[in-house]
Amino acid sequence: MKSKADEFKMPKWMECTWRRTPCNKGRCKICGPINKDREKHIDAGEDPDSWESAFADVGKNLRQTLEMIKQDAAAKGIDITNLDDIQEPPSPSKFPLYTKVKNWWLAVHKLVEAAELDEEMWLYTPEGEDLIWYSLLLPKKVYRQQCNRWHLKMGDNYGEFDYEYTQYVLQESAKILKYSLFELMKIDSKYKSKFLIILTNLQALELKILKI
Prior knowledge:
This protein has about 210 residues and is mainly alpha-helical. The chain has helices at about 5, 30-45, 50-75, 95-115, 125-155, 160-185, 190-210. α4 packs antiparallel against α7 (about 190-210) and α6 (about 160-185) runs antiparallel to α7 (about 190-210). The longest helix is centred in the middle third of the chain and has 29 residues, at about 125-155.
């Protein structure tokens, strides 16, 4: 028999944690704090979109998000986790698959930098923007999922709800990336062969990612 925790569904506002086009409403539980984090990085003279800034916010945002999820569940009479029992997971470099996915992102990043120098217009299409956004998101979510798997193996008592939701995010992100690359290969661009290489490597990684 399934417990109430097993039946708990992620709230709709979780979409704003990873979609390229979140609601951006100040009252949103996700967009409000994220916008404040961006302002803090800018005030400190830091790039809010840099890899370093993103990972600096991961731990804090994960705990805050889990706390909000816990509150939503509690309002429904569901106790899904004891946040005090959550252990610190290994660093990203301890997971070989994460390193491979990050290297895939680095290849995309180099391609984007070259395209910017060439003033390629595909960068400003929805497909180009999706490629940039979700290619950066993918390694972050792969690490998140590997942490989820690690927590479950360690017996941390926060259930499988985050693991299942992150699996959904990974599936959606891979689907969006593949569609974007297929569409980009249709345009007349000298980057067409590079899009194919990136797509082929993504498809090889996808099989491993979805088995985490």
